[in-house]
Model the fold of this input.
Amino acid sequence: MAGMKGDERHGTVRDVRERLKGRLKGAILEDVPLSGYTSFRIGGPADLLVLPKDWEDLVLLTSVLVEEECKYVVLGRGTNVLVSDEGYRGVVIVLSGGLRRLIVRGEGEVEVEAGYDLNHLILRCMDYGFSGLERLAGIPGSVGGAVRMNAGAQGECIGNWVRGIKLLRIDDGEVTDKEITGQQAGFDYRKAGNLKNKDIIYLVKLKLDIDDVEEIGKRRQEALRWRRETQPLEKPSAGSVFLNPPGGSAGAMIERCGLKGLRVGDAAVSMKHANFIVNLGKATADDVARLIDKVREEVLRREGVELREEIVRIGFPEEG
Ligand SMILES: Cc1cc2nc3c(=O)[nH]c(=O)nc-3n(C[C@H](O)[C@H](O)[C@H](O)COP(=O)(O)OP(=O)(O)OC[C@H]3O[C@@H](n4cnc5c(N)ncnc54)[C@H](O)[C@@H]3O)c2cc1C
Done:
């Protein structure tokens, strides 16, 4: 794809669309604004947005993408991403529109497809008396996105409970269906370090503890309360913008620098949680990106620490 001119690239996307028409069960949308698919409510159009309904759809889609050498990116619920105002030239695969099967194997063992909502999963696990994920209650992602990002809160993270991951890997013009163990995923702070950039997680196997339903419920409620008290949930955002540096808190540093409330256009550093940037209404990706730069520069100048982004950028030139 590198060096391809706009017309040729659009030609590729058109070919993908034509080859999927009438064969894919899920929806295929053209030139659709990604702002409708992100929690920031920001993002320009995707050339093509595909919502595979199930694993067969995903296999068909990936085989066509490989044959047409078409660029793609995966989205779950779009709650940890910043999509550029120009949008995405290629195919955006939204997994939260399908792949939502949950199989309870018993004894804390659950298999869940990547598009399943994390909060629904936590509720279902609670009903069965399966404990482990309840402190993650309120994280608004999909299961696939949560595993990719090793989502966590209050000292807990999903990677602690993952026993297996099924994924499609596209490498050297070939699609491979792989299963890896949780250990092989290389879970670390907000990452599954051994996954490749373009891997598409489609199923996750979890092994949870068994506990009293009421106790799980209490911990879940406590997590939700903590979130309501500490996070600006009433405004669009993508959660924490920066990773916490080793031994420190990005939010505390930003707050010490007096940056709460700092604005670029309609993007503002939240007054409630300094590591959140909120969209006050009409914020653009450019507003957010410029605000991120300002915060990073100020924290570097005043605290001597260079903050790294947790949010994933999509459709920006540096993304590659
Ligand atoms: C209000 C708010 C609070 C939040 N609080 C927390 C928190 O406490 N802790 C925390 O960890 N996060 C938090 N987040 C961030 C976010 O919700 C999590 O990272 C979540 O797990 C992302 O899931 P998603 O489906 O939205 O992923 P997306 O945002 O859609 O994608 C994130 C990344 O994962 C990739 N990806 C998504 N699905 C797949 C898949 N199936 N296979 C391969 N790659 C995939 C994408 O390409 C992208 O790189 C918060 C966000 C908001 C808006």
Remarks:
- The chain has three domains: 6-97, 102-218, 233-319.
